[in-house]
Amino acid sequence: MNSPILVSEYITPTPPIVWTIAGSDSGGGAGIQADLLTMQDLSCHGCSVITTLTAQNSVSVSLVEPVSEPMLLAQFASLLADLPPVAIKIGLLASQAQVDLLAECLTQMRMTRKIRPFVILDPVMVASSGASFNPMDLDFSPLIGLIDLLTPNQHELRRLCRHSVLAQHRTDEIDVEPPIESSNRSSIEINTVSTLQQQMINNAKWLSDSFNCHVLAKGGDALWQHQFAIDIYVSKAVKGASSAHDNASFTLSSPRITLSNNHGSGCTLSSAIACFIAHDLVVHDAIVLAKAYVSKGLALGFCPGQGAGVLARTGWPDDLEVMPLINLITSGNLAQAFTVKRAAHHGFTGLLQPLGIYPVVDDLNILKQLLSAGCKTIQYRTKLDADADCQPRLPLENNIITAIKLGREFHAQLFINDHWQLALKHGAFGVHLGQEDMASADLTAIADGGLALGLSSHSYFEALLAHQYSPSYIALGHIFATTTKKMPSAPQGVDKLTRYVSLFSRHYPTVAIGGINLSNLALIAKTGVGDAAVVRAVTTAVDPAKAYLALHHKWLQLTRSLPQVSLSAEGV
């Protein structure tokens, strides 16, 4: 007799709720329809507030009819009463009255319901066919303080920066129309392209300051960029992300896809960002994932009618090749910001063996105990630091010399954390760097010295930055809550770790770090991550060597299907 099937076996987590406030595309390629398809594809529950009805197909738009203000308000109020959102994407608004009414609704949502969703404004103004949706330029300033991200394309960016009420006070006088586009680079003067680059950056920064929000200025319609589609991302402060990326500007570059299946690409991008935000990713991550999602959707798009085709819905991005290249824009590299090239492949020494259980210790006695117990990969992270002139104090250098000698004596892969100059000087096996140190260290010198390099990451955005340097391994963390050091990011958890592993494990050794111990080691192993770094699980144990061996044998059982080894975990 078969056992009864329990309903609870089929219960799945409730998907986060995402709203789209936009126009209806009767052709199904853009607007509300594209948004809802994207939300379904990215495991969100999509709700809609329709602002405009359009009669359109893949070739043309024949009629645009805004909904009444009472209907717009009723849709918003009805959803708010039962289906409050985690994130909202705003697309086509057909009149100034709709802008003002929406601003009032969002304000009341915050004040009376204490609901603060992440809000994205994609200021749709012109259809792919060229038809204008708005007979007049709208003033979006009532939405200042109510939106978190603006995603204009080139046409919308220039229009907002020229005709916005806020633009009356603008002091930047650079304003160049793009020339007639051509596939022949020689047809556009180099100085004109340079000016367009500068203008795009200036406009994005001005818009970010004016609306006090993040801005993603899209480059898909900037054909003067030629073979790449380069977006400008201007960030504000982001809670839960590295402060090194706060109030910074980046280019996000992807190969330009010349296929014409691009109807609804802007709608898809903004709704995908909203979905990734709803899945508890920081905005940096949401943007790079959404750009990858659109790139793959464009490449696999199809043409249901006689005009422009539509994007394919391809699920959560897990293909490193479609991820954008990230480049920090500084005052000294404006001209190079649009030069698309990956960081030089430095050729860091590869790992001689898997990291396995990878202890991170700050005590030389514990270091020696673990090496004596058979540990073959270990990191020395000393709490000693350099003096005010950035010169290493003598105890620091002596300790690092001792650690490196111990690593050699026990034929172990010993990594020095942060102090790459001393690691290089005294011949360590490798160096481990965080995101801030990665940007300032001489990576060429590290590679030329024959050292391996491990890089930390705490998000998709940071892991992609690490990937661009082709390190020996990428550390993914922090997975669980940890008291080892103060972290700006929230614990990533095993679900995010699983996503990271699916993206990077085919290309790099991956190691999870942060709050890992014997009790949660099985959860880490299930993600498929290659290795696991441990700190307090060994450094605070009564017997660090015994604690390490317990972790080591458990990891082998979990990842290599070895027979059970009986080891006491006392003191772990």
Describe the secondary structure blueprint for this structure.
Layout (H helix, E strand, L loop, with lengths): L16 E9 L5 H11 L3 E12 L4 E6 L2 H14 L4 E4 L5 H18 L4 E4 L27 E2 L3 H10 L26 H22 L2 E4 L10 E7 L14 E7 L9 H14 L4 H17 L25 E5 L27 E5 L2 H9 L4 E4 L13 H16 L3 E5 L2 H7 L3 E4 L1 H6 L2 H6 L3 E6 L2 H8 L5 E5 L15 H12 L5 E4 L7 H6 L4 E4 L1 H4 L4 H17 L12
Helix pairs in contact: 1-6, 2-3, 4-5, 6-7, 8-9
Concise overview:
This protein is of the alpha/beta class and 572 residues long. Helix content is 34%, strand content 17%.
Helix content, binned percent: 25-40%
- CA-based shape: elongated
Termini separation comes to 45 Å
Query: Given the helix and strand composition, which structural class is it?
Result: alpha/beta
How would you sum up the major sheet?
10 strands, mixed
Strand order of the largest sheet: 3-2-1-4-5-6-7-8-9-10
* Alpha plus pi helix count: 17
Q: What is the average of the pLDDT values?
A: 88
* Unreliable stretches covering 5 or more consecutive residues: 180-187, 562-572
Radius of gyration, CA atoms, in whole angstroms? 26 Å
Provide the β-strand percentage band.
15-25%
Number of strands: 18
Summarize this structure as a short list of keywords or feature phrases:
single chain, 18 strands, alpha/beta, ten-stranded mixed sheet, 572 residues, disordered C terminus, eight-stranded parallel β-barrel
